[in-house]
Design brief:
heterodimer, A: mainly beta, eight-stranded antiparallel beta sheet, six-stranded antiparallel beta sheet, 7% helix, 48% strand, B: alpha+beta, Immunoglobulin-like, three-stranded mixed beta sheet, 12 strands
Chain lengths: 327, 279
């Protein structure tokens, strides 16, 4: 019983104590923040966060690059009511910014990844993103929680203009080396560059040769170089021959070999060779994938001869190159 | 004796000092011109004994049946000079526990016009690449298998420069384990996050190599997200009614996804080096 009275007394004291505090504050106003402005906020012009614009700060938007985005400065005013009941604008002094990449999918911009950045700009590593699609950067600007309660603005989003992400292409394809290493073999080497300036970024590109032999003597994908006995050549070769290397190698070699022979008489076999490149996603296309979009780089006719020029010899020609071997 | 006869190889002892000096200069210049014109390589091709090959299949040495397997191959130049190797010259073979050859990456044969790329390795330098073993052979049955890697030399009759064989234990099938393995490959694709040690295309090819309905949602995602005809072809390779139905549904679309699905119907199903080669 005594204990119950004591508890009641303590509770009443606490309540009255609190009321006393509230009464004391009612003589002025408690500090109060609002993120926006209301009619009653005489003297305040506070509004939502004015976030700086977001813009792409690079040149062509290439895959496998770091894409820089610039961000304009942010500003924001919150309204604070002081103890004297007056209202004042208080400028935000710090913001946080978070960045995402969006992709345009079926008519809607969709968040597809998070990128690094702060309130001065963002940086997008485009390596893992499929080229050919349209992307934009999205920056969310928030005020910091150091304001008083009620001072938080909604996050303000700004977007860069949408841009196509480009896959680098093969450029400057050229012959760099030509040799006759012996035995009638013609050895050629080629180099190429990337439109983005970094040949290592051609990792989704295949550079291939496609060699098509004279078609009348091809069956089951194999070309009989004997041409039914008209030639002394006896080799049978894949027709077409499609072999490729990954574009990021930046160089390819091509050995043009000598067919096996059965005797020696005047013989000739011709092939059409084209060097091509194609790009793919998520992998570089297979060299024999004819559904890929192949782009021509250079075309040649390859001629293989057995001829008597005061002695029998084998001769191979391609473009302006030629190798011979006595028989 | 005139110089033309000399160049035909007729020996003479009456060569003057002046002529000898001129000849030496001409010969020297000729060699330099040839090297410049024809780009004579100063790096020799690797020969047997120059290289060692190592093969890492999985950290535990075991998988469950049907799981995708990615191997890391490391080729080291053990010689004392810089040597050149054929970049595409790494081949895999799979053997049963009794030594039976079960699958073999086809070696090039009768290639008359042979395009390839090379890589130079300094003494002690290593060259590492990923290969999708299940692009060649899917371990559908539990047991012990051997996987052999060979690095071949050039040109047309390539010698084996190095080889190594490791065994892999295949445990009984577990759909949950297979799904977990697929998930591990897939999640970085979906999140556009870091691919770690396994690049995107290697992950994709590893998923293409699975022959089980479990992989269909992943293939479906790749087909829809990227218009990936190889993912559509992988559905065909699964060869189940569910896979066929999924592909059939994609072929009815009129966008690039439908194009990819229809292209996949025309693609050969036979595995090639492309299915095995990672990055």
């Amino acid at each position: 019983m005594r204990g119950g009275r004591l508890l009641t007394l303590v509770a009443v004291s606490v309540i009255f104590g609190a009321v006393g505090v509230r009464i004391a504050q009612a003589c002025g106003c408690s500090l109060n923040w609002t993120a926006g402005n209301r009619a009653a906020h005489s003297g305040c012009t506070a509004g939502p966060i004015s976030a700086g614009t977001v813009s792409y700060a690079g040149s062509t938007l290439w895959r496998h690059h770091n894409a820089p985005y610039a961000k304009g400065s942010n500003s924001d005013k919150d309204c604070r009511q002081d103890a004297d009941c007056s209202f004042h604008d208080i400028a935000e002094t710090s913001f946080t910014c978070s960045w995402k990449i969006q992709c345009y999918v079926d008519g809607v911009w969709v968040d597809v990844g998070t990128i690094s950045g702060d309130c001065t700009g963002g940086n997008w590593d485009t390596t893992a993103y499929e080229p050919g699609k349209e992307y934009r950067a999205k920056c969310g600007t928030n005020d910091t929680p150091a304001d008083g309660p009620g001072g938080d603005d909604a996050v303000a989003y700004r977007y860069s203009a949408g841009q196509t992400l480009w896959a680098p292409t093969v450029t400057s394809f050229q012959n760099s080396v030509a040799t006759c290493p012996g035995g009638g073999v013609l050895h050629l080497e080629y180099t190429w560059a990337s439109s983005c300036g970094h040949v290592a970024h051609l990792d989704k590109v295949t550079v291939r040769e496609k060699v098509t032999y004279e078609p009348a003597y091809t069956a089951g994908g194999w070309h009989d170089m004997s041409h039914d006995g008209a030639n002394c050549f006896t080799s049978s070769v894949a027709d077409p021959t499609t072999l490729g290397v990954v574009g990021s190698d930046g160089t390819g070699q091509d050995n043009h070999g000598v067919p096996a022979m059965n005797g020696t008489w005047a013989s000739y076999c011709q092939a059409a060779q084209v060097y091509q490149w194609a790009t793919g996603w998520p992998s570089a296309p297979a060299a024999d994938d004819e559904s890929a979009s192949w782009n021509d780089l250079a075309s040649y006719t390859i001629g293989r001869y057995v001829e008597n020029v005061g002695g029998w010899r084998y001769r191979i020609t391609k473009g302006g190159w030629e190798c011979t071997n006595g028989l | 004796m005139d110089s033309s006869r000399h160049f035909e190889g007729k020996p003479t002892h009456r060569l003057s000092v002046a002529r000898a000096v001129s000849l030496a200069i001409v010969l020297g210049v000729s060699v330099l011109v040839m090297m410049g014109t024809y780009g004579m390589a100063d790096v020799r091709y690797a020969e047997p004994g120059d290289l060692t090959c190592s093969l890492l299949l999985t950290s535990s040495g075991a998988i469950t049946a049907g799981e995708p397997v990615i191997a890391r191959v490391e080729i080291v130049n053990r010689s004392s000079e810089t040597i050149r190797i054929w970049s595409g010259g790494t081949f895999l073979d799979v053997y049963g526990s009794d030594g039976t050859l079960l699958a073999s990456m086809p070696r090039p044969r009768n290639v008359m016009d042979f395009m390839y790329s090379t890589r130079d390795l300094a003494p002690g330098e290593s060259y590492s690449k990923l290969l999708i073993v299940t692009g060649l052979y899917q371990f559908a049955t539990p047991g012990t298998y051997g996987v052999r890697v060979q690095q071949l030399g050039l040109p047309r009759e390539p010698a084996v420069l190095c080889e190594n064989t490791v065994s892999i234990q295949v445990l009984p099938y577990s759909s949950s384990q297979l799904e977990a393995a697929c998930d591990e490959l897939f999640m970085p694709m979906r999140r556009h996050s870091s691919f770690g040690d396994v690049p995107l295309s290697t992950r994709a090819k590893a998923l293409y190599s699975v022959r089980d309905d479990v992989v269909l949602p992943y293939l479906d995602w790749m087909a829809r997200e990227w218009g990936d005809r190889y993912a559509c072809r992988a559905m065909r390779r699964v060869r189940t009614s569910r896979a066929e139905a999924l592909l059939a549904a994609l072929t009815t679309r009129t966008d690039r996804v439908g194009d990819a699905a229809r292209q996949a119907l025309e693609m050969p199903l036979t595995s090639t080096s492309w299915d095995v080669e990672g990055e």
